[in-house]
Every structure is written in structure tokens, then in C-alpha cells.
Amino acid sequence: MSKNIVVAIDGYSSCGKSTLAKALAKRLHFIYIDSGAMYRSVTLFFLRNKINLKDQESIKNALNDIHLDFQTTESQTLITLNGEDVSKEIRQMPVADMVSTVSAIKDVRIEMVRQQQRMGRTGNIVMDGRDIGTVVFPDADLKLFMTADPHIRAERRYNELISKGEKVNIDEIFENLAKRDHQDTTREESPLIQAEDAVVLDNSYIDEAQQLDFAMVYIKPLLAI
Dihedral angle at the C-alpha atoms of 58, 92, 82, 78, nearest 10 degrees? Predict the structure, then answer.
């Protein structure tokens, strides 16, 4: 390969974007960057520090104090917030309920895009999120847009949280996903939209191995560049 390859994966919440991105990165020996975890970490910081989301100055000052890094092990990719591993805490419902609101803040998106683009210059990467192929890397070598039936997405999220020992209600999860879909697709800053040159992957009725095979069909030609 004569240049760094960027694979951008966008899509709705709980569509398995990170699952596919991690699998691709592992198969290809690329760097995996979880942009969603970055926004969740910012949200966690705001919650912990009771940042007023209507106070632009407070938000800007808080962003100056947020330092995010990824650490990859053989089994997982961890995200640290100012040196603290917050990989588990950012997946809990208080963060999930607020992350779309935080993600819609212009200053937050500007700072996260800046950090993501910096990471993209470090080597071959797979990055997932909601605006990767449209805003962060509009010239990405491959863009995938993931979707799935809303009820299936809610069930997947429910099973994930239950397996972690959390007490959750599937109806509340469905409502949370519907709320996030609306916020993500209608926000003024970098809304979730399908890039014109993106390949659509509906994984409602396929398993993880099948979706990996689907993506590899489009990636293999890039490896010969």
C-alpha cells in the first residue's frame, strides 16, 4: 500500500458499528478509533463536572481540560479520559441519555473532529461514528453506512446491558434509541446522513461473520493500491 487507508463507518445507534470496526481493524491490522466513545467520554466529563450545556464559555473551558487517548490490547480497545479508563462507565444509561445532546454542540464537534483527523494521520485506520464519511473524512477510501430494524437494535442493546449485570427495561431502551435517532439526524451540526458514495449495510438478519465478509469484499481492492 502506498498510502494510509481510511475506512469510515457511519450509522445509527446499536447497529454494531463498533463491532464491525473492531473486527475489520483486527483482520487488517489497522488502527481502530471509536469516535462514539470519544463523545461519550466528553459527556461523562460534563456530567461529573455539572457543566451547563447552555453556557458556551463553560463548555469551551471544559473541552480544554479533556484529554482522550485509546489503548489497544489483544482483546479490546480502551479509552482513557485524562488518564482514567472509562470504557465501561461511558456505556451506562446516564451517559446514553445525554450523549446525543452533547454531540450536537458545535464546540464539542469541532474539538472531536480535530482530534479524530489528527489520529487519522497516524496510519491505516478504521473509524466509526455518525459523521465520519461526511465531515471527518469526506475523502475516505471506503465508506460504510450501517442500519438495522429499530426493534432488533433495541433487543441487541438490551441483551448487551443485561449481560453486563445492569438492570434495564427494553421499552426504555427502544425509546432512548428513537430519541437518539431523531437527535442525530436532525441536529444542526454534522447530522447523521448517508454519504452519497457510501455502501449501505443492513445487518438486521446477518451475523457478525457475515457482515465482516460483506465489508471485506469492498476493502480487498484497496489493499492492492
Answer: -140
Ramachandran sector of residue 144 (left: φ over 0; alpha: ψ -120 to 50; beta: rest): beta
Model confidence, pTM: 0.80
Among 190, 162, 174, 146, residue whose Cα is nearest residue 18: 146
- Over the Cα atoms of the chain, what is R_g? 17
Q: How far does the chain reach from its first CA to its final CA, in angstroms?
A: 5
- Tens digit of pLDDT for each residue in 4-45? 899 999 999 899 998 999 999 999 989 888 888 999 999 999
For residue 184, give the C-alpha cell: 442525530
Question: With left for phi above 0 and alpha for psi between -120 and 50, is residue 95 left, alpha or beta?
Answer: alpha
